[in-house]
């Protein structure tokens, strides 16, 4: 692979990384603010940080107890 | 001003509320008294429009025909649940607007009632952080927000600790000034303390109703309680033979005589005691309580 | 009308407070651009992994741009729809189950208003996310593959929106019928799977079936004009959605809020 191609690839993928970052930050803020999670709260922290993309989404969908 | 006629509710063919009828006077505070499972909650939920009765009618004097009865009613369920992500004030404004207040009116009233029920200091905090007592107060505020003609409270104090209970009872006492209050309870003393009238419910039926005073009149008889240093069986027999005395029973604390004529019985007992030289340690004249009435009605 | 706005504003406030306005669009962007990007970079990635022996020519056919855009739709029709269902299942059922509905419905709230306001709020959230996702996808497709005319893109988005509206309506309908949100999701997914099976078996007879929206949309890109089947399918999808909404009013009114 040419170096130029790698550069181009990174440039195009940069927005993805930014989005992923936004998602994780939002999930972390939500995690801090949530009093009640389904299951232990610290486990959700690991999921959010370790499972890229899927972790934050899972947390948003099923992690929080809300009413 | 509020009439309920032949109200009936069945769940799976089992009648939970059986053909009850009653009326409420404007400005009254009425307790719906009954043991758990008597049908109190079901009754209140029908009156608030959450359940559809299988029969009977609910009418409001002065209500426009065809009007939504819910406009005239405020309701507090036994376990009120709020959106935990909202603040107390936001919630009040929200339900106020749902009850056709403008945003400004709703905001003003939310502030007023937060103050009134004593949680103004936490009005801007998330409801998720509220204690049970605060939620109950917020619940009362949301029931009052649209100035209903009547509010119905389902077991408003039964889940509270003694202090919270006292505070909420005092609050309800104050609410009587503004509106008609109907609340359910299984605790007679709560009912006696703040209500003007009682509806006694048992197994889905209203067995007895009336003002507190009239029920006292109807069911109360005088009693004289005695205690002696030493207790002997013959004392019981002797007391029973005295004029003006009905039933005589003994318990751990002493002897209880139900009396027909207090004055006559008092003299007779005291004379007897002096004659026999019994060592009297306690003598009191009192009346049977509503508790006794409640037990009597329920066990009929 | 005021009640309607009150409920909708409350829903939007909730979407802010629980970050839905942030994460749902972000996820839709991901779903929309995943396939265009991976398709374009697959040769490069394979190359860099060095999986191909020297001299072997690995031909990946150049995909036409519309087909790449349709890949975005197919991701959304899977994961996007799943997210929509999971976020919509509790709309009515959850409020009833938790007991919040008690406090709301003792106020003089008209049931159709209550349901429609929530329905529209959900639709606004998901369509916003969908449109943003498709915009980003369009940008990447134009950059990496071929230009897709704006009108074609716009029509794609508009017509596919009807399918998402249908999914929301279906889920809300089940949400008024059943009290358990999990069950609502299961039944909604089941219904959609059933519909797609029916569609694949009888597709020749059921040209106006909602599930065939995307294949008609592809036709649109090929021919450059709106095929009549697309109009028909869109019409059927809208009618079904509105029908489900009215059915929701009906079931909700009949249901006791116990």
UniProtKB/TrEMBL annotation, chain A:
Domain of life assignment: Bacteria
Topological category with respect to the lipid bilayer: Multi-pass membrane protein
Domain Cardiolipin synthase N-terminal: 22-64
InterPro entries: CLS_N
Transmembrane segments: 12-31, 43-62
Coiled coil: none
Compartments where located: Cell membrane
Keyword line: Cell membrane, Membrane, Transmembrane, Transmembrane helix
Chief location of this protein within or outside the cell: membrane
Any one Gene Ontology cellular component term annotated for this protein: plasma membrane
UniProt-recorded name of the protein: PLD nuclease N-terminal domain-containing protein
Organism from which the protein derives: Natronobacillus azotifigens
From TrEMBL, chain B:
SMART domains per the UniProt record, alphabetical: AAA
CDD domains on file: ABC_DR_subfamily_A
Domain of life: Bacteria
Entry's Gene Ontology molecular function annotations: ATP binding; ATP hydrolysis activity
Alphabetically ordered keywords of this record: ATP-binding, Nucleotide-binding, Transport
ABC transporter domain mapped to chain residues: 2-228
InterPro entries tied to this protein: AAA+_ATPase, ABC_transporter-like_ATP-bd, ABC_transporter-like_CS, DrrA1/2-like_C, P-loop_NTPase
Entries under PANTHER family matching the protein: ABC TRANSPORTER RELATED, ABC TRANSPORTER, ATP-BINDING PROTEIN
Family the UniProt entry places it in: Belongs to the ABC transporter superfamily.
Protein name listed in UniProt: ABC transporter ATP-binding protein
Organism: Natronobacillus azotifigens
From TrEMBL, chain C:
Keyword Membrane part of the UniProt annotation: yes
Keyword annotations from UniProtKB, A to Z: Membrane, Transmembrane, Transmembrane helix
Pfam families recorded: ABC2_membrane_2
Transmembrane segments annotated in the record for this chain: 21-42, 68-87, 123-141, 153-175, 182-202, 230-252
UniProt GO molecular function: ABC-type transporter activity
GO cellular component, one term: plasma membrane
Domain of life: Bacteria
Protein name: ABC transporter permease subunit
Species classification: Bacteria, Bacillati, Bacillota, Bacilli, Bacillales
């Amino acid at each position: 692979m040419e170096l130029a191609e790698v550069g181009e690839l990174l440039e195009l993928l940069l927005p993805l990384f930014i989005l992923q970052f936004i998602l994780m930050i939002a999930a972390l803020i939500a995690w801090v603010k949530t009093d009640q999670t389904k299951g232990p709260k610290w486990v959700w922290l690991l999921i959010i940080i370790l499972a890229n993309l899927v972790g934050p989404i899972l947390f948003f969908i099923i992690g929080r107890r809300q009413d | 001003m509020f009439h309920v006629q032949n109200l009936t509710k069945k769940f799976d063919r089992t009648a939970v509320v059986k053909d009850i009828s009653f009326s409420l006077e404007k400005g009254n505070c009425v307790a719906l008294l009954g043991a758990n499972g008597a049908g109190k909650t079901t009754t209140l939920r029908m009156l608030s429009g959450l359940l559809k009765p299988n029969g009977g009618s609910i009418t409001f004097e002065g209500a426009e025909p065809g009007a939504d009865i819910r406009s005239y009613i405020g309701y507090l369920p036994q376990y009120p649940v709020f959106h935990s992500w909202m603040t107390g004030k936001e919630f009040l404004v929200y339900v106020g607007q749902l009850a056709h207040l403008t945003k400004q009116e709703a905001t003003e009233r939310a502030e007023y009632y937060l103050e009134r029920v004593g949680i103004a200091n936490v009005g801007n905090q998330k409801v998720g952080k509220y204690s049970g007592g605060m939620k109950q107060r917020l619940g009362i505020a949301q029931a009052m927000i649209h100035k209903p003609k009547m509010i119905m409270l389902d077991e408003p104090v039964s889940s509270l600790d003694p202090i919270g209970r006292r505070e909420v009872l005092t609050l309800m006492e104050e609410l009587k000034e503004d509106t008609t209050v109907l609340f359910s309870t299984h605790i007679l003393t709560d009912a006696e303390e703040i209500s003007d009238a009682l509806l006694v419910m048992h197994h889905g039926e209203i067995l007895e109703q009336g003002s507190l005073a009239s029920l006292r009149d109807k069911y109360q008889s005088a009693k004289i309680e005695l205690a002696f240093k030493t207790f002997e069986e013959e004392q019981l027999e002797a007391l029973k033979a005295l004029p003006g005395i009905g039933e005589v029973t003994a318990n751990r604390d002493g002897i209880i005589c139900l009396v027909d004529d207090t004055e006559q019985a008092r003299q007779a007992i005291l004379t007897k005691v002096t004659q026999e030289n019994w060592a009297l340690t306690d003598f009191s004249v009192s009346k049977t309580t509503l508790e006794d009435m409640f037990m009597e009605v329920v066990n009929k | 009308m005021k009640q309607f706005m009150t409920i909708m504003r409350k829903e939007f406030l909730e979407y802010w407070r629980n970050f839905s306005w942030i994460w749902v669009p972000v996820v839709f962007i991901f779903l929309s651009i995943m396939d265009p990007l991976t398709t374009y970079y697959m040769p490069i990635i394979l190359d860099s992994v060095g999986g191909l022996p020297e001299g072997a020519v690995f031909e990946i056919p150049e995909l036409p741009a519309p087909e790449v855009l349709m890949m975005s739709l197919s991701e959304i029709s899977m994961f996007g729809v799943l997210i929509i269902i999971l976020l919509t299942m509790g709309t009515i059922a959850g409020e009833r189950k938790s007991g919040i509905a008690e406090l709301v419905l003792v106020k003089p709230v008209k049931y159709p208003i209550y349901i429609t306001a929530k329905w529209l709020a959900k639709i606004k959230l998901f369509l916003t996310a969908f449109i943003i996702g498709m915009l980003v996808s369009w940008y990447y497709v134009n950059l990496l593959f071929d230009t897709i005319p704006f009108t074609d893109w716009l029509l794609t988005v508009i017509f596919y929106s009807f399918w998402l509206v249908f999914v929301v309506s279906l889920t809300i309908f089940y949400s008024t019928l059943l009290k358990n949100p999990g069950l609502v999701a299961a039944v909604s997914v089941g219904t959609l799977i059933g519909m797609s099976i029916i569609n694949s078996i009888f597709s020749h007879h059921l040209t106006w079936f909602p599930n065939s929206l995307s294949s008609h949309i592809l036709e649109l890109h090929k021919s450059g004009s709106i095929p009549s089947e697309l109009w028909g399918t869109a019409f059927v999808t809208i009618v079904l959605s509105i029908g489900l909404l009215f059915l929701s009013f009906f079931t909700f009114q009949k249901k006791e809020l116990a």
